[in-house]
Amino acid sequence: MLQINLENFNKLDFISNEAYKQIRTNIQFCGDSIKVICITSSLPNEGKSNVSFNLAVSIAECEYKVVFIDTDLRRSIIIGRYKPDQVVAGLSHYLSGINNLDDILYETNIPNLDMVFTGAVPPNPAELLGSNNFADLIKKLREEYDYIIIDTPPLGSVIDAVVVAEHSDGVVLVIEANAISYKFLRRVKKQLDQGNCKILGAVLNKVNIRKGQYHYYGKKGKRYDSNYYSYNT
């Protein structure tokens, strides 16, 4: 397998790590049939990529074999944030038939965590994600990994997340505190329901910890950067 170093990966502080352990534990209590998990949000910049990547790392720390797939083919931030030490082929190359799976699957410097990056920005992201090639990819990875964590585009902007979620066992919705209206969230949830996507729960992100209203994580003194996980009811 190809190997890559994520040069900008830093371990979380204690409180942050504990928060992700809580999310990880809640997901595990959803049952052992939940292994392909789609992470989405309503709008850009709610922190879904950060949440999905750190969740993948947290699960890998339990010695599960995990693969993280970046399906945000339109506007990925993963490469820019974690800075792999080489140019990589990615999901768009595989879905277009340019590369095979061995060319896009990378073993990282994080134990038990492999990654599939986005690759080049294609002109037809939704069509590629809805193709048989994507369905076949998930089927192959199910056979090799304990968990598959998929970062998707925000659902309030494009429909890609529903297309991806149809191949998952459940969806976690990342919500930025005090940024998204209840009405808009209902509309996003309706889209997931129409796609027969099982909603596992939600992560409340960027909570104002000075108000002391939520279980939080983040560096001491920071106003934002918080998570709270709740089951869907």
Proportion in β-strands? 15-25%
Percentage of helical residues?
Answer: 25-40%
- Which CATH class is shown? Alpha Beta
CATH architecture: 3-Layer(aba) Sandwich
| Distance between the ends | 41 Å
* Contiguous uncertain segments of 5+ residues: 212-233
Shape category = globular
Give the topology string: H per helix, E per strand.
Answer: EHEHEHHHEEHHEHEHEE
- The CATH topology is given as Rossmann fold
Mean pLDDT rating: 86
Quaternary organisation of the protein chains: single chain
Major beta-sheet overview: 9 strands, mixed
Number of helices: 9
Strands in their spatial order, largest beta sheet? 1-4-5-3-6-2-7-8-9
Write the topology of this structure.
Layout: E1 2-3, H1 14-28, E2 36-41, H2 48-60, E3 66-70, H3 78-82, H4 91-95, H5 101-104, E4 106-107, E5 113-116, H6 125-129, H7 132-144, E6 147-151, H8 160-165, E7 170-176, H9 182-194, E8 199-205, E9 227-231
Parallel strand pairs: 1-4, 2-6, 2-7, 3-5, 3-6, 7-8
Antiparallel strand pairs: 4-5, 8-9
Short overview:
This protein has 233 residues and is of the alpha/beta class. It has 9 helices and 9 strands.
Structure write-up:
The chain has a single domain, classed as P-loop containing nucleotide triphosphate hydrolases (Rossmann fold, 3-Layer(aba) Sandwich), CATH 3.40.50. Helices cover 34% and strands 18% of the residues. The protein has nine helices and nine strands. The model is unreliable at 212-233 (pLDDT under 50).
Task: Considering the chains and any ligands shown, give keywords for the structure.
233 residues, alpha/beta, Rossmann fold, nine-stranded mixed beta sheet, 9 helices, 34% helix
